């Protein structure tokens, strides 16, 4: 007899979705989370009336079918995640609006005419966020894909997007997952932000599941017919375990799964400084992409109070600065004061008055922010997914699809639950119990 049917490690949306679906199927599922709050990479801090999204910044109206279905099921309506209604600008001497929008192909959005024509061709071809390796682009990196085109395509579109959204190095990450995601989610003004913080979805799922926070897992042991979750002197036995944590963490917790994909599925780290302002700055766009050619320290400026007015108290502002991937390694171990000073100083020319308006800075370091989607990992992905469900240890997370978005995490959780429901629930019902 085991303590629980399924033990799920990680209370991000992948793990919580898995638990929620298994519960609907009649399975006793319990989630164990190292942090004191749920959400994983979709957590929100609440400080002095500010809502601070620590990693994920937005979701999409399009391409998030499973997310919207689950939200409706949980009673979370569309008004809980209103459209941002604002676009993204590219910095090229000044903020140039229209990034990833049709109007940007006319106004430029920082691109020369030749580069605009190249950008218009980007969306040609078949892309699949569930099977990114199926693209005709194969394992070409972002840099390799851009090489035959006008240099502006790389310098003032692709590099700022991959570095500013995912912390990617264009020379390391494959382009197919990027284009699959960009073509799925539609233009930025249609993107949405949860009114009460990006942890809204996770909190709604957690309210319907059994979650234990403050429970850091040290190791998962596969005993053949069952598995054990070890945390210090505590031990939880389960008929199955789902590791819903970033791939490098999963590989460390369960080294017995000798998977080439797990070894190759690296993640990029992100460092952010959230600046609590005494007045709102910026506009009209809610985000500013900053090319490495213009500024090698800051990659993205997000005006959170423009993303949704509830992110800051009335008359105040909230700005998030995301560090450029090239400086992240040194900032990971720097003091909060040094990180905030360096990023704020680099962003001052982009947002005049930023330093004087800052009342307080909160620094966040996310060591596993997004799956890096290297060509090697892309080549191994389909084989890894095909083998899932054959043992007592399973996996969930956006990295299973090499698609850095919460919809991929949700889909992976749904699939993990489907794989386990028949194997774990049915025998229990037939046998009269666990």
UniProtKB/TrEMBL annotation:
UniProt GO molecular function: oxidoreductase activity
Coiled-coil positions: none
Positions of the Amine oxidase domain: 13-420
Domain of life: Bacteria
Cited InterPro entries: Amino_oxidase, FAD/NAD-bd_sf, Zeta_carotene_desat/Oxidored
Protein known as: Amine oxidase
Organism: Amycolatopsis keratiniphila subsp. keratiniphila
């Amino acid at each position: 007899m085991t303590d629980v049917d399924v033990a799920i490690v990680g209370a991000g949306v992948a793990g919580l979705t898995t638990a929620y679906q298994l519960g609907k199927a009649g399975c006793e599922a319990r989630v164990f989370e190292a942090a004191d709050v749920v959400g994983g990479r979709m957590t929100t801090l609440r400080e002095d009336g500010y809502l601070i999204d620590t990693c994920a910044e937005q979701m999409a109206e399009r391409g998030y079918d499973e997310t919207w279905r689950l939200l409706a099921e949980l009673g979370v309506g569309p008004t809980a995640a209103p459209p941002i209604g604002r676009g993204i600008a590219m910095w090229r001497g000044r903020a140039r609006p229209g990034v990833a929008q049709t109007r940007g192909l006319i106004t430029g959005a920082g691109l020369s005419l030749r580069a605009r024509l190249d950008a218009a061709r980007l969306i040609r071809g078949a892309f699949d966020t569930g099977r990114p390796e199926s693209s005709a682009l194969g394992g070409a990196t972002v840099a390799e894909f851009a090489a035959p085109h006008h240099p502006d395509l790389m310098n003032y579109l692709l590099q700022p997007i991959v570095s500013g959204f995912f912390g990617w190095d264009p020379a390391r990450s494959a382009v197919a997952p990027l284009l699959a995601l960009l073509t799925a989610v539609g233009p930025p003004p249609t993107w949405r932000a949860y009114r009460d913080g990006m942890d809204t979805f996770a909190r709604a799922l957690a309210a319907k599941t059994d979650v234990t926070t403050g429970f850091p897992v040290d190791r998962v042991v596969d005993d053949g017919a069952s598995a054990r979750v070890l945390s210090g002197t505590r031990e939880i036995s389960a008929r199955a375990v789902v590791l819903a944590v970033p791939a490098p963490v999963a590989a460390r917790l369960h080294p017995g799964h000798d998977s080439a994909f797990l070894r190759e599925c690296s993640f990029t780290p992100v460092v952010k400084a959230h600046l609590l302002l005494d007045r709102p700055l910026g506009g009209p766009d809610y985000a500013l992409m900053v090319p490495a050619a213009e500024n090698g320290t800051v990659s993205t400026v997000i005006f959170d109070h423009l993303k949704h007015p509830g992110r800051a108290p009335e008359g105040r502002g909230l700005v998030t600065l995301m560090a450029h991937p090239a400086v992240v390694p040194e900032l990971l171990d720097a003091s909060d004061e040094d990180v905030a000073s360096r990023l704020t100083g680099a962003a001052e020319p982009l947002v005049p008055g930023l330093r004087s308006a800052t009342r307080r800075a909160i620094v966040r370091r996310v060591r596993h922010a997004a799956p890096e989607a290297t060509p090697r990992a892309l080549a191994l992905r389909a084989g890894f997914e095909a083998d899932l469900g054959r043992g007592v240890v399973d996996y969930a997370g956006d990295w299973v699809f090499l698609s850095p978005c919460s919809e991929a995490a949700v889909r992976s959780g749904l699939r993990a639950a489907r794989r386990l429901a028949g194997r774990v629930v049915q025998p229990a019902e037939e046998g009269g119990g666990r």
